[in-house]
Specification:
Length: 317
């Protein structure tokens, strides 16, 4: 029924835009098949008035004109329904070009290229090349994860998904039932924010840790979607970016460069080991586990215990 109504509205809009003179209700009814099948006049009049109001809500300007005989007609003049010309200066065109180049290696590359072609057709000056302006800048958002496309569509369509997810401290992936909210790229990695039904709380998932296929579920969302989804802030807190303390660790020489980049102090111990002081925030234990035998926590004791517990859980499988 939704398709039938959309087709009826499209036919009515084409009739009103294509005529050079006002068309009466009778003429419109004879021109549109759906109106011929409306049955009696009352049904047609109700359907026509609803369609006319719907088109006006969509932005179509419909004029009502009365002729010499007092008969009312309708038309949509092209000059009243034509969008103004699009004018872009060199800087605006360059910004659009850079935005399009971001997606050249992702699924949205075709849409970005098509948008620029439409701008060309709408009047973008030929001497302005949005791709070449500021050519020294080469923005890229890499999208290598197979989960990106199905999750992007699920976020758009508000459809729950199921996937296998391997935590940093786990040996095997676990199934997750998630209501996806938003995707965001941070420091070269894509993250999904959503409501984890199994845990009954908001969670953030790194796409590179999703294994297998992302499967959609037809049921609706059970948790309200927040107005603002703070993916980056959540990832920062879980990655130990927001820290109010420090920890001391032993790190094997030549290993753990991400840890060295964060270090407040580095001291050589000899025998192939260094001692580092690093910021200590929520989630640091999970991060340290990823470095395996190259890291030994010295202090605080609570962090050392958390890392040991995670390593034991991995060993048990």
């Amino acid at each position: 029924m939704a398709i039938a109504k959309a087709e009826r509205l499209m036919n009515l809009a084409l009739c009103l835009l294509g005529t050079r003179r006002p068309l009466s209700k009778r003429e419109l009814r004879e021109s549109i098949e759906a109106y011929l099948e409306a049955g009696n006049d009352d049904s047609f009049n109700r359907m026509f008035e609803r369609d006319k109001d719907d088109l006006r809500e969509l932005g179509l300007v419909i004029a009502t004109v009365e002729n010499m005989d007092g008969e009312v007609g309708y038309l949509a003049r092209r000059d009243s329904n034509r969008l103004p010309a699009i004018t872009l200066d060199a800087e605006e065109a360059a910004a659009l070009g850079l935005a399009a180049k971001v997606w050249q290696q992702a699924r949205l590359a075709g849409a970005a290229s098509g948008a620029l072609q439409k701008l060309r057709a709408a009047g973008l000056p030929e001497d302005v090349d949005p791709y070449e302006a500021h050519g020294a800048l080469e923005p890229r958002i890499p999208v290598h994860e197979a989960a990106f496309e199905p999750l992007m569509l699920a976020c758009r369509d508000r459809r729950p998904v199921v996937f296998e997810y391997r935590k940093a401290s786990a040996a095997r992936p676990e199934p997750r039932h998630v209501e996806p909210w938003a995707l965001e790229c941070w420091r070269g990695h894509w993250y999904l924010a959503g409501f984890d039904r199994g845990r009954g709380a908001e969670r953030v998932f790194r796409l590179s840790r999703i294994t297998g296929k992302v499967r959609s579920r037809g049921t609706g969302f059970t948790a309200p979607v927040p107005d603002v989804v703070t993916v980056r802030e959540t990832v920062e807190s879980w990655a130990g970016e927001i820290a109010d303390r420090s920890a001391r660790i032993r790190l094997r020489s030549g290993a753990g460069y991400p840890l060295r980049a964060k270090a407040v102090e580095v001291r050589e111990l000899g025998d192939g080991w260094d001692e580092l002081e690093i910021p200590y925030g929520h989630g640091l234990d999970a991060w340290l586990v990823e470095f395996g035998p190259d890291v030994v926590v010295l202090e605080p004791a609570e962090l050392r215990a958390d890392v040991v517990d995670r390593l034991r859980a991995v060993a048990k499988g």
